[in-house]
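It is worth pausing here to work through a concrete case rather than discussing structure prediction in the abstract. The textbook approach is simple: state the sequence, then state the predicted structure, then interpret. We follow exactly that order.
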Amino acid sequence: MQYEIDLRAIKAASFAMSSEETRYYLKGVNIEISAAHGILAIATDGHRLIAMQAAPTPQAITGDREIIIPAETVKRIKINRRYSDGILRDMGNGQWQIEHDGQIWAFQPIDGSFPAWRRVLPKHSTPAQYLFAIVSPVEWNAIICAQKPLSFKIESRRGYKLITFKGGLKP
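Step two, the predicted structure:
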């Protein structure tokens, strides 16, 4: 089975992945594949949580799946500046691949269960209210690629955290 994904979402989510060896199941980006939500890239270190939509429209998805892409693989992914589309492919026997711009990164997913990340979100909210409304993958790309420190503030409004960047972001 293969899925089309936006690799910027994986790279953006990696901003929050853990580096602790004792919490090995957090040392990567969880890819959640479901017919209801499409494909999501989620990472947390237990203090920060980033969830990004890697494919907004469900693609012939049968059944829900989750895999955790190891941090080493995520760090090796290099994204073409013109486009960020990639292919996530199940090769069978527990092996997966990510293909982009003629490059292939093979990996074996982390054997573990990713935490129930939706439990920390406000109750009675719909996916449209909490999924990835903070910043788009393009803005996260600008954050990750920033050559200078970014100035921002976080404020709470109606139970949601709002991140405001001084001077705005340019991809």
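Step three, interpretation. Helices lie at 7-13, 71-76, 127-130, 137-144. Confidence is low (pLDDT under 50) at residues 127-135.
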